[in-house]
Specification:
With 116 residues, the chain is mostly helical. The protein contains five helices and three strands.
Length: 116
């Protein structure tokens, strides 16, 4: 479902010119349909996050791209780990046991227990 520019402004409680600036800086990338910005749920969540970072943590315009890039990396890594976890669950138990043993060698932590 796509959300109008006006609804996003009201939802995150920022001025329209502020949200427009975020779009122009590519901090949020909504669809531009016939000159009107339309936001999906992910765009709304990102705009809300930016508003909170600015309001609650006082992240300034110079630091925001770095913060957003780091957060994007964290989300990507979490997704990759989730995908890896699902793949591990699909392999035979013998292979999972061997994987736990190899991880224990690398991390120095005991291999007991199934954390996959």
């Amino acid at each position: 479902m796509l959300i109008s520019f006006e609804k996003v402004v009201a939802e995150i409680e920022v001025e329209g010119k502020v949200l427009t600036a975020w779009v122009e800086k590519s901090w949020v990338m909504p669809v531009n349909r016939d000159g009107e910005y339309l936001f999906d749920d992910a765009d709304l969540a990102r705009a809300r996050l930016i508003a909170e970072l600015r309001r609650d943590l006082e992240v300034n315009d110079e630091a925001m791209p770095v913060v957003l890039r780091l957060l994007d990396q964290v989300y990507s890594l979490r997704k990759a780990l989730g995908d890896l976890n699902e793949a591990i669950k699909a392999i035979p138990e013998e292979a999972r046991t061997q994987l736990r043993a190899e991880l224990a060698k690398v991390t120095g932590k005991p291999a007991d227990g199934d954390e996959s």
